[in-house]
Amino acid sequence: MSALKIKKGSTKHSAYNLRPDFSDVIETHTLAVLVDNEAGVLARVIGLFSGRGYNIDSLTVAEIDHTGHTSRITIVTTGTPQVIEQIKAQLGRIVPVHEVHDLSVEGPSVERELALLKVAGLGDKRVEALRLADIFRANVVDSTLESFVFEITGTSDKIDAFAELMGPLGLIEVARTGVAALSRGQ
Amino acid sequence: MVVQALRDQGVDVVFGYPGGAVLPIYDEIFQQNDIRHVLVRHEQGAVHAAEGYARSTGKPGVVIVTSGPGATNAVTGITDALMDSIPLVVLSGQVPTFMIGNDAFQEADTVGITRACTKHNWLVKDTANLSGTIHEAFHVATTGRPGPVLIDIPKDVQFASSTYTPPQKARTSHYQPPVKGDMDSIKELVEAIEKAKKPIIYTGGGVINSGPAASLLLRELVDSTNFPVTSTLMGLGAYPGTGKNWLGMLGMHGLYEANMAMHDCDLMINIGARFDDRITGLVSAFSPNSKKAHIDIDPSSVNKVIRVDIPIIGDVGHVLEDILKIWKSRGRKTDKEGLQGWWTKIEEWKKIDCLSFKQTGSVIKPQYALHRLEELTRDHDRYICTEVGQHQMWAAQYLTFNDPNRWMTSGGLGTMGYGLPASVGVQMAHPEALVINVAGEASWLMNMQEMGTAVQFRLPVKQFIMNNERLGMVRQWQELLHGERYSQSWSEALPDFVKLAEAFGCKGIKVDNPDDLDEAIKEMLAYDGPVILDCLVEKHENCFPMIPSGEPHNKMLLGDAKTKDAIGTSGAVLV
Ligand SMILES: Cc1ncc(C[n+]2csc(CCOP(=O)(O)OP(=O)(O)O)c2C)c(N)n1
Ligand SMILES: [Mg+2]
Predict the structure, then answer these.
(1) I need a surface site. Which of A98, B98, B250, B271 has the fewest CB within 10 A?
(2) Same structural domain for residues B30 and B90?
């Protein structure tokens, strides 16, 4: 099947190129969307997902070019290949959207998320939390006699694993940034 | 500044309604004569009128409404235009910038409310950006898949002065959807055209939107390949209704031969249509054995509902030109033998004569009313609008459309109350033409105040009301799938339409006998001014053929079908 033209600079090849047919398998894709940082642009993107019943697993946004006023929105979403393809085409239709990249099909990419976790505890639990933090290369960014705030960066899976381990050790609060992602190489 | 920008965009008429938040714009309008302002009676009417204007001219329609209730009243019309891809530029007034967010008098979050029903919208906070934004708005509304856009302009921004940016100097937009289709895909389609034994071309509103050239190219493709052609409700007129390859409209109330050919074909070429659910019926059983090609300017229309084998993203006109070029250069090949067999089959389906009806007795059959309307008006320079319901489907079935831009109807949204204001917009654009609104009595009442607009602006629109004293389409569904329990689907306490016409200052005619029908239509045509023709028709007539919800194309109900239990319980949940 030939390429679906989505938007200039966007993913050239449809996900269909990789598959013989529509499948019902739910896939997770990470999309990078470059937009004009104008009023309401995030509402348009979020409104698209809620209005059409798509899923958002994670969403991050920040201006990446302060002179050109461009923002990069990173969205982790799930759906069948047909739905993912629709999401990309629908995103491409939004007027202030310049590019839509599907990092999950465009080649290898790196994904990172940052999280802050507050863990309160005394004695052995406190020591164990610190030891695990070391294994996960989490930093202590705040400490009292009864608590730590850990800062951890990694894939979402790694943060999930760390948070799960901290649970029984006195985890009381978590803040996560959502995923930021870039394709590898040039 | 606003009027200057509109003038530079070639606008000659705007439809609107004033209010506190747009007074500075109205003051500008007062002091010039280039742009005519049509004062409607309700903002929804302004938007539908602009749609009628746009659809019948190919130019964008322009609307001006005030803040708050003015903007919210426009929402239905804007949504209608979005669903049917009609280019509109809506200018709304807003409370001054320093009052936004304070629940000021007549403040509404207009860009928030209309975000989901516009192609794009803007809140202009600085007069320096106003003219540039207006130019950008026209570009966005008319480029790619057309649609409505809205510019919300706070009152202080309207008052302040700044330097005017002419269209040539406006920032070039990054919004430039591609119009040329992918050549490899086009070649693939040409190969399929050469091999097809049972092809069908299925066209939609995209052919009309692409412009008159696209319709000419379509005619060339159809006539030179001898392929059969059908169309959605929105695409009527792209290929002439009197053309020899025309199968009639397809879909839920489409013709038997068109739907059967869609079901049995081996190559389906969708040109500017979107596999809407009124068209496909049961998706899993939709045209099971065909190779499908889809030409559309909007990538999100492709593979949304039906998986296609040959997607071609581009403007219909450009793509058709390339298809023809390549097909001709390869020797204009088709499988003539295969086609002959296919046409034989199609002729058999045509023999069913699914639109046949018998006018007997003293009550006018709606089909007969349209049949006579067609006979008596087909030689006129004619534009048809409709409301929504059975009469709309009958109009699509029994009237003939030989040219694009002649048929204005609310397809995607199905908005009752569309037709009368749309006819006002069409007549504004074509003052000398015959503009008829084929209406149902219930729909017509929804925006009947626009009769005042027609009278004020001396627009001789003909309101052909097929009065069955029923919400006919609702009644039909209740008969078919709710055990004939006619809940709230009749029109009681209807006005006397003749007296109503007189009250508005126009002409009213009433007819209830088939023998008097021709005379009544002629009287309507002869009158130099707006007319309301109250045509009393059979109350319990059903609109056939019909593909019941949840059924495939080959499970059509025809006129004499037993209607009870025609729709399964799974179909009943569908609309
Ligand atoms: C604004 C709006 N409300 C409700 C409906 C649902 N609806 C579709 S057709 C119909 C009945 C229309 O009656 P009428 O205009 O008399 O036309 P008929 O079907 O009788 O020809 C209704 C209520 C609609 N399409 N639009
Ligand atoms: Mg009716």
Answers:
(1) B98
(2) yes
Residue B566 located in a structural domain: no
Q: Ligand 1 center to residue A128 CA distance, Å?
A: 69
Which residues, listed in sequence order, are joined to residue B535 by a DSSP beta bridge?
Answer: B466, B511
CA distance B483 to B468: 20
CB contact under 8 A, A1 and B111: no
A85 with B303: Cβ contact below 8 A: yes
Report the residue from B115, B299, B303 with minimal CB separation from A44: B115
What contacts B344, CB < 8 A, 6 or more positions away?
A: none
Domain extent for B334 = 183-351
Find the mean pLDDT for residues B317-328: 98
Q: Which of A43, A82, A98 sits opposite B174 (nearest CB)?
A: A98
DSSP tag of B363? S
My answer on whether B403 and B526 are in the same domain is yes
Q: What percent of chain B has pLDDT above 90? A: 93
CATH number at residue B508: 3.40.50.970
**Could you tell me if B387 and B464 lie in one domain?**
yes
pLDDT tens for each residue of B273-296:
999 999 998 999 999 999 999 999
Q: Which of B146, B142, B55, B61 is nearest to B401 (CA)?
A: B55
Q: Which domains does chain A have, with CATH numbers?
A: 27-102 (3.30.70.260), 109-183 (3.30.70.1150)
Distance of CA B489 to the CA centre of its chain: 25
Predicted model pTM: 0.94
What is the tens place of the pLDDT at every residue in B253-264? 999 999 999 999
Average pLDDT over residues B138-153: 98
Q: Say whether both B456 and B516 belong to one domain.
A: yes
Region A120-130: mean pLDDT is: 96
Angle, to 10 degrees, between the axis of helix B390-398 and the axis of helix B366-377? 40
Ligand 1 atom showing the smallest separation from residue B444 Cα: 15
At B204, which CATH number? 3.40.50.1220
Residue B564 lies in a domain: no
pLDDT beyond 90 at A122: yes
Q: Are residues B421 and B272 in the same domain?
A: no
- Give the CB-side neighbour count of residue B396, counting CA atoms within 13 A: 30
Mean pLDDT for the stretch of residues B6-21: 98
What atom of ligand 1 comes closest to residue B468's alpha carbon? 20
